[in-house]
Specification:
The protein is of the alpha+beta class and about 650 residues long. It has 18 helices and 22 strands. It has an eight-stranded antiparallel beta barrel with strand order 15-16-17-18-19-20-21-22. It has a seven-stranded antiparallel sheet with strand order 3-2-1-14-13-12-11, with helices on both faces. Strands 6-4-8 form a three-stranded mixed sheet. β9 and β10 form a beta hairpin.
Length: about 650
């Protein structure tokens, strides 16, 4: 399974820690390495005047370099202050092959998870009407049931704060053929994930949870979700280039941009149809997003059309969940991101090709919107651009005061962690091994997170500014350590409040699991190679007599050799086939089913055959005439089979096709 998919499912944990040039969100592909010097300047001590000329000069100086450096075909930008447009401009191409330029007013970009803001607005409209209650069991609004867990119901408030506890689900999330796209109801029924955490306790970013909310809107309103948003948000705000229909219907007054993977010289990926649509199906233009922003900044009303009451919008922007008051919170669907003294609020969005950002600063009524139409826009350009913009127009002195802590407090955070946005009940559990980060503190009290680097390519270093609170040296990203009732650090909260990092046990760490798999496969490979070597030696040394076993030595039985062959050859072949086709199968769809069925058969046979080397090893230890080296050999083979059996069962290499 390729690293692109590993990065895809691991987005939330990457966002939950300091910025890294290799991050993505939702299914996507990592950007290619930068080929030019960074365009990020040092923070300015004096704010620039945010006027149209200065804003355009800023973006004209940065965005074209980003497009070239990160191999991005095009981008659409909108900057507003109040109702004044400071910049509305397209950069690059909407269609790279035809050299069709981006027109911000006429080119539709896919906004992915920014869709969620419209879903939550729809939910709150129905709350205003008394048709929904934020703290009622969502099962009361559904015509199917969310399976019980932890003795607590899931509520709309949980869904809006990503604290429903759902594990990640990826099957059929992105398709390009409309004929194969399931209905919203069918998707939610057939892809219902298990729950990892009790509701309201741990954030675990969930597209499924947003899909549930969208389906509740559909059920309660009596309108298809796509039509509800059109009738109650797009039409009142005159957002004529916006739609949740995938692909857009003929009445939309704009044309979709093409989307590209990491290489814009290759064909476009096609129109990415996202399921569930309420979590990522939005298509829109820059001026339309400006109208939505104006309505939000104006208390829910624009040009006489009201989509929310002021008090409802105030509630949506009220912090609902965070690990510490010194960390950015998630509000009712919106989340905050902090830079200098500016508290942006909004959402980002990512598909395979499109990567977007929509943030508002209510204090200055500033709107910041950008969308890139290539995979390269998902890692470095967005955080780089919003940081540079904030430093230019909203500078502030942010140098923290670092403190000294006792060694025990410093070392308490050390360990290996994985994201709370993950799957534990299906085959993608194995991918969590690759999503882990190891935190360590050096003798000077400096914390590092694996080999993670900042936007400049420098190793990220953090120091404590309070007990359990760490801040990036020469940066503003933070990590907060969450302790259990016994004082042990069990999770970490980062600047993205929709997910956290959870400590893993030693036997769940990538270092243990991958080494155990590698050593086991090596031992079993030797079992396969040894008899082949003996055959070849006999062929090339036919004049010599066949070697005879040393007294007290036993050859491995045929069934033990067969177990080794089944573990190594077919299983590795199936994994290789999946990896070889993964560029066309990411994220996973029903096209994976044939490989999963084959994997089930291979693993089942391997598990059955693993009984034989275990029995053989046990027997050798009961035979006194057998040399100890032979007993060790039999035991190593048995342990290797048992280790791979544990991996197969624990990481669900055999089991349901759901993923």
């Amino acid at each position: 399974m390729r690293a692109s998919y590993v990065a895809a499912v691991g987005l939330s944990f990457l966002m939950a820690l300091p910025a890294n040039p290799q991050i993505t969100k939702s299914p996507t592909t990592a950007a290619p390495p930068a080929q030019q010097a960074d365009v990020q300047p040092p923070p300015q001590s004096t704010a620039h005047a945010m006027d149209p000329a200065d804003v355009q000069a800023f973006f004209d100086g940065v965005v074209p370099l980003q497009l070239e450096r990160s191999d991005i075909a095009g981008a659409s930008v909108l900057i507003m202050q109040g109702d004044k447009v400071l910049l509305q401009k397209g950069y690059g191409f909407a269609d790279a092959k035809k050299h069709q330029p981006v027109d911000p007013a006429k080119t539709i970009f896919r906004l992915a998870s920014i869709s969620k803001l419209f879903t939550w607005t729809s939910v709150m409209q129905l709350v205003e009407q008394g048709k929904l209650d934020l703290d009622t069991d969502v099962n009361q609004y559904l015509d199917f049931q969310i399976r019980p867990a932890f003795g607590k119901p899931v509520t709309l408030r949980n869904l809006m704060t990503h604290t429903g506890g759902f594990e990640e689900t990826d099957r059929d999330v992105i398709l390009t053929d409309p004929k194969h796209v399931p209905s919203l109801r069918d998707f939610l029924i057939h892809n219902q994930p298990d729950r990892l955490f009790p509701p309201g306790v741990v954030p675990a970013y969930s597209n499924y949870g947003v899909g549930l909310a969208g389906y509740i809107v559909q059920r309660v309103s009596g309108e298809p979700f796509e039509q509800y948003v059109a009738d109650h948000i797009f039409n009142p705000l005159k957002m004529t280039g916006s739609t949740f229909y995938q692909p857009p219907q003929s009445g939309v007054a704009a044309t979709p941009s093409e989307g590209y993977k990491a290489d814009t010289t290759k064909p476009a990926v096609g129109f990415e149809i996202f399921s569930p649509a309420p979590a990522g199906g939005l298509s829109s233009t820059a001026p339309d997003m400006g109208r939505f922003a104006q309505a939000l900044l104006n208390g829910g009303e624009l040009d006489g059309a009201r989509i929310l009451k002021p008090e409802t919008l105030a509630l949506m922007w009220t912090p609902q969940f965070r690990a510490s008051d010194q960390m950015p919170p998630i509000c009712m669907g919106f989340y905050q991101t902090w830079r200098n003294n500016t508290k942006w609020i909004g959402h980002e969005g990512d598909l395979i090709a499109f990567h977007s950002l929509f943030f508002l600063d209510p204090a200055t009524k500033t709107t910041f919107f950008i969308s890139y139409n290539s995979a390269g826009g998902g890692s470095k350009p967005r955080p780089e651009l919003i940081d540079m913009f904030t430093d230019r127009y909203f500078p502030a002195e942010t140098k923290p005061t670092y403190i000294s802590l006792p060694k025990d407090d410093l070392k308490a955070i050390e360990g290996t962690y994985t994201t709370t946005r993950r799957a534990d009940s299906n085959r993608t559990r194995l991918l969590s091994v690759f999503q882990q980060q190891k935190l360590s503190v050096d003798k000077d009290g400096v914390l590092t997170v694996g080999d993670r680097k900042d936007l400049r390519g420098h190793l990220i270093k953090l120091k404590p500014i309070a007990k359990d609170l760490w801040q990036e040296v020469d940066g503003q990203n933070r990590i907060f350590a969450i302790r259990d009732s016994n004082g042990r650090v069990i999770r970490l909260a980062g600047d993205f409040p929709g997910a956290q990092m959870e400590r893993v046990h030693w036997w769940q760490t990538g270092a243990f699991v991958l080494n155990a798999i590698g050593l086991s496969l090596f031992v079993l490979a030797l079992v396969i190679v040894a008899p082949l070597w003996r055959v070849l030696r006999r062929i090339f040394q036919r004049h010599r007599p066949s070697p005879q076993p040393v007294p007290g030595t036993m050859w491995l039985p045929f069934m033990t050799k067969l177990a080794a062959i089944v573990w190594v050859v077919p299983l590795v072949a199936v994994l290789w086939l999946i990896s070889a086709e993964s560029d066309d199968l990411m994220p996973p769809t029903t096209a994976w089913d044939k490989w999963f069925l084959l994997m089930n058969l291979v693993v089942a046979l391997a598990l059955l055959l693993s009984l034989f080397p275990v029995i053989s090893a046990k027997r050798t230890w009961g035979l006194q005439q057998i040399r100890w080296i032979t007993k060790i050999k039999f035991t190593l083979v048995a342990l290797s089979c048992l280790t791979l059996a544990w991996v197969a069962l624990y990481f669900h290499l055999i089991g349901t096709l759901r993923i």
